[in-house]
Amino acid sequence: MHGRPRRPAKPEDEGAAAAKAAKLRDLQAQVLHNHHSRTYTKEALGLSFKLLEINPEAYTAWNYRKLAFQQNLRDLADPEAIKSAVDDELRVVEVALRQNPKSYGAWYHRKWLLNQKLAPVDFKREFGLLDKLLKVDARNFHGWNYRRFLARFLGVPDEEELKYTMDKISDNFSNYSAWHNRSILLSNLLMQQNKGFESKQKIFSEEFELVIQALFTDPSDQSGWFYHLWLLAQTSTPEKPRLIASWPSNGAKLSSSFVRAKVEQNTLSSIWCYSLQERIVPIVLYFDEPVKGLNPSSVKLRSDLVFAKDIHWRPLSVTDSGYSNCWATQLEIANEWNGLHQFSVEVSIPCSDDIVSRSGSHYNCPVHFSFSIELMNCGDTAEDIDLFHDPISWDCLEPFQPHGIYNSISSDQLKTSSELVQEDSKWHLERLSDEIELFRELPDENSKFLKLTLVRLLRACAAIKSRGRSLAERKGYCEEALALLSDLIHLDPSHKRYYEDEQSLVLMDQLTCNMETFMKHCSIQVQLNSAPMSHVQLCRLSLTRIGFPERLLWVQVLDLSHNSLRSVEGLEACQQLVCLNVSNNQISNFTALESLMKIISLKVLDLSFNNIGAHSIDTTRYICSSPFSHKIEACEAFEGCQQKEINVEDYWEAILFFKSANLT
Amino acid sequence: MAEAGAGSAPDDYPSIDPTSFDVLICGTGLPESVLAAACAAAGKTVLHVDPNPFYGSLYSSLPLPSLSTFLSPDPSTPPSPASTSDDSHAVVGLDRRSIYSEVETSGDPPEPSRRYTVDLVGPRVLYCADEAVDILLRSGGSHHVEFKSVEGGSLLYWEGNLYPVPDSRQAIFKDATLKVTEKNVLFRFFKLVQAHIAAASTAGDVAGEGDASAKIPEEDLDLPFIEYLKKQQLSPKMRAVVLYAIAMANYDQDGIDSCEKLLTTREGIQTIALYSSSIGRFANAEGAFIYPMYGHGELPQAFCRCAAVKGALYVLRMPVAAALMDEEKKNFIGARLASGQDIMCRQLILDPSYKIPTLDVPCDGSDSDLPRKIARGICIISKSVKLDSSNVLVVFPPKSLEEQQVAAIRVLQLSSNLAVCPPGMFMAYLSTPCADGSTGKQCIKKAIDVLFSPQASDGSEGHSETTSESSDDVKPTLIWSCVYVQEITQGTSGSLLSCPVPDENLDYRNILESTKKLFADICPNEEFLPKKSAPVHADDDSDSAE
User: Which residues 212-251 in chain A show a CB within 8 A of chain B?
Assistant: First the structure.
């Protein structure tokens, strides 16, 4: 029961408890004996009733009663007699529930009885029982579960149940179960488009209004915040999956050759693609929520190229669920030609029933993009490109020179997606802005719920703004969210890591949300005898995780050193990545590097000054699936692994890890 | 239940035997009845007489037709005492007075008028956690009276409209008129007060050091309550809610000149503590207040019954004609009844409708330099002021109606579920303390105008039907009303005790406080209505509320 302190046991209770235990043991033995001998007489049933009256958790007794009930039923033909037998059983359940209103066995027995459909259900009695129980404890989730069961069983309209949740919330709004049931009922009603529930916007506006009354009245009560979180998720997450980024981007021109002069004149017009030398073109598609079902029929390719193999889309994800935000394929070019030749590739994703999100929504915003590939015949390669003639130096002290060339790396990787801004995002934005204004007014109570909700609202708002492109406002939201998060770290240190992760996401959003700011961290790296590489430096930002990988799909050299990264999850989307520096971070195990196994182009990895091996037992190993359980694509050789800080005893793991990654 | 007093004509006064009692009480108002019960429980012999044929005196509930004669009695003087002066004592004639004036009724009392019961003490309610309730339970008086809750809560008149009074977490949550920020500030204040109350109550048991931080600092407790509320950033409307509708301040707390009774934070919080402990004391009572079925007149009767059980002798229709004093004219030693019989007693207690003979009686009512008055109003209306509620409180904070309104006007609406009026009708009581009767009456009338609409001049029937389409917005129609002024006198102690009159408050707390003081004068070493005085079957709290 909620909100009632426990009384410490008194010494005189002990004797009573011992006597009760002895009686219980005796009863239990007798019931078990009857169970084994299949004795279903009245006296035997009476014993099981006595046992359940004292201990409703005796599962065997419930099962025994079920068997007995079925057995005795065979002799009954008269509907009245059957009814009275059912009533008897129902009464046993009621007695047991009086002893313990949260007895799983008792509730299950009742459901089982009703499901036998032997006698008409006296719904008045059932709902009366529930009312009584919920009056005693309005948050008894068994009661609420049973209520949902009854409502479904008897076909009570969801509208009526919704009213009931409102009654309970009016009695006391600190009721998780009632708010929860409300979210379930509303989802159903909105999905079925019942009368009065046609407009999601109207309903959610009303619900926001309602829950805000509770939040402002008592911000220290958590139940309302949970409901608000649900509402916010309903308002800010997309209803249908959409494609938000791709590599190559629309209109991109890929090339396997480069001209140094062009780089120096800042007139680089095509993107150098490392894998093109092997006649492989990777394509990466990035969706705004995890989807599955990408295949040659759901993603249509049109090209004058000839491919050696069938196109096979694979999810770039460290989990095995089959759902992923990020999907990739590799086109192996089989054409024969002479000299320089340009080919074009068109990709289109029509509305598709194959592509579904986790919530079951189908993909229905068709996109179309195209890019071109400039290929030299392999025979007469003009220059011998040796990418790693000199080991790449990661000199962080050297001032980073932002490079001005970015016409080749467009921030808007996929123009098509921004055109697809849905109309209702306007409502979402208004709703969210209203909420933000309102919560800013709530006097600072040092309430972590308030601050966290405000952060979530600001982030949701910033995400929508990214489609609407009002940059200044968006930056403001990010700044405010960052400040709130650092408050939260002080206020609620036990969830520090979560807040740090959130901070990293906001920070990455802020840095990469537009090209102007992003460019300060980007350059085209040009080295003697090597190809120009798009280089991104995100050092010394206290990042703990990677966010917005869809904005990094084109990066070839990525410097993430001197952060606090605990994992590199997300980087698997960067299929162009050749060099990665994650030195001086907080990576403590190899599992955290699993994503890197998915990057086929990775050549150089700097892992120095991390915490790998700091703990002798890699606890995440037991949580995450092991890297060895995955089928690893043929990885390119790593070079220059400078693992200076790894303990000797941990080497075996490192060796195993990199062996599977074809270490040279 | 009256042991005596069945005579129909005044000449048939019964003779009383014995002729000597520890305590002789005249008048069966609430303080007198409580004293009778307390004295009887303390083992005193008690003779309790009342000139009226009913119980309650100034605290009674009357059938509507009897009201006007009670408020404006015949000026005919009571039979003068037979001047059979004895050598052992001196006879001092007792005059009666009416504390009511400026009675003004309008409208015809609806028929059957006897089915309307009017309180003389209205508007008045009991807190569920009130001492009055405790005394009823302790004395066993709770078996003779049944309560129902004022389930409609309270309404506050503010800037021309009536608003529900948000007095609990749920009420704040449900309130549709408050801004969310106001809700936040108000509930934060409630939480602060609750934490203080909890900390203060545990500090008594253990020297709780952890809870001490939850307490409101001493310097804030001595602050005027209104200043503290300002400090907590309550808006003017929220301040009015807390001051006048929850802390029950009567006088203007905002004015500089008229701070007749400026509530301190300590006092304010005390009332809030009572208020919040009242909510939920009885599982079947909704809200903080309860009202006795059949009217407040039931309460003195309940105590009289308790006294009778303990052996007190009751005689109704028996005025006291004169007081008897000893030879030195220092002490009262008895009273001459209207029957002419002399009853000797150690303590004579009179209800406040008797003028206290001033000779040789020290007047300790020094604080009452200006006579205080209360304007009261009784109305019969056709419909509830609040939709779907039967019993409702309304408060008009000071100056909410006009500048001259120096004090809060309190209104209590009762429905037929209290058996005080026929179904479909409602009673409404209004009161406001005032220095000058006519201003007070003017305020009451103004409040009546705001709450109710006058009856259509062309006849009342059909009025409610024609406006059915907008009946939610239509004010209740005023069918009958009576406005009058009542004087307030203090109870006095000495060898002749005079009990207090019904005061300006919504509850009985002050009256019971002075009654307890009077009891301490009579029986200095006795406990006031100890628990053991209750009959054994007084088991459960829950039966005191319906």
Answer: 212-214, 216-219
What is the residue whose two structure tokens read 């095509």?
Answer: A270
pLDDT in tens, A203-227: 888 999 999 899 888 888 889 999 9
Contact B184 A443 (CB under 8 A): yes
Q: Are A216 and B188 a contacting pair at CB < 8 A?
A: no
* Across A377-386, B163-172, B401-410, least confident range: A377-386
- What whole-number distance in Å separates Cα of residue B336 and Cα of residue B503? 29
Peptide bond into A8 cis (omega under 30): no
Cα A387–chain centre separation: 38
Q: Is A78 on the interface with B (CB under 8 A)?
A: no
Chain B residues near residue A441 by CB distance under 8 angstroms: 180-181
- Both tokens of residue A267? 């007139």
Residue A150 and residue A155: Cα distance in Å, rounded? 8
**Rg of chain B, C-alpha, whole Å:** 24
Sign of the dihedral through C-alpha A176, A177, A179, A184: positive
SS3 label, residue A338: coil
DSSP H or E stretch at residue A330? strand A324-332
Q: Cα–Cα distance between B16 and B478 in angstroms, integer?
A: 48
Sheet-wide strand order for A522-525: A522-525, A533-537, A557-559, A579-581, A604-606
* pLDDT over 70 at B439, yes or no: yes
Upstream peptide bond of B454 is cis (omega within 30 degrees of 0) = no
| Least confident span in A402-406, A457-461, A475-479, B386-390 | A402-406
A437 touches chain B (CB under 8 A): no
Q: Crossing angle for the helix pair B30-41 and B509-522, nearest 10 degrees?
A: 40
- Contact call for B180 and A171, based on CB within 8 A: no
Q: Residue A303 above 60 pLDDT?
A: yes
A186 close contact with B: CB closer than 8 A: no
Whole-angstrom Cα distance, residue A297 to residue A299?
5
**Structure token digits, residue B425:** 């009708």
pLDDT digits (tens, 9 = 90+) for A107-124: 999 999 888 888 788 888
B contacts of A223 (beta carbons < 8 Å): none
How far, rounded to the nearest angstrom, does the alpha carbon of residue A590 sit from its chain's CA centroid? 22
Residue length of chain B:
546
Interchain CB contact of A441 with B (< 8 Å): yes
User: Which of A213, A219, A445 comes nearest B173 by C-beta?
Assistant: A213
A184-211 burial code (b ≥16 CB/10 A, e <16): bbbeebbeeeeeebeebeebbbebbebb
Is the bond preceding residue A296 a cis peptide, omega within 30 degrees? no
| Cβ-contact A551, A286 below 8 angstroms | no
DSSP element (H, E) containing B320: strand B320-325
The number of angstroms, rounded, from the C-alpha of A307 to the middle of its chain's C-alpha atoms is: 35
Residues 6+ apart with CB under 8 A from A436: A454, A457, A458, A461
- Does the CA dihedral B444-B450-B455-B461 come out positive or negative? negative
CB-neighbour burial class of residue B380 (10 A; exposed 0-12, middle 13-18, buried 19+) = buried
Between CA B232 and CA B223 the distance in angstroms is 13
Pairing of strands A300-303, B126-127: unpaired
Q: What share of chain A is helix, strand, coil (3-state, %, to 5)?
A: 50, 15, 40
Question: Which H/E stretch holds residue A510?
Answer: helix A496-512
Which of A136, A169, A216, A435 would you mutate first to test chain B, the one with the most B CBs within 10 A? A216
pLDDT category at A530 given cuts 50, 70, 90 is low
Mean pLDDT of A589-600: 80
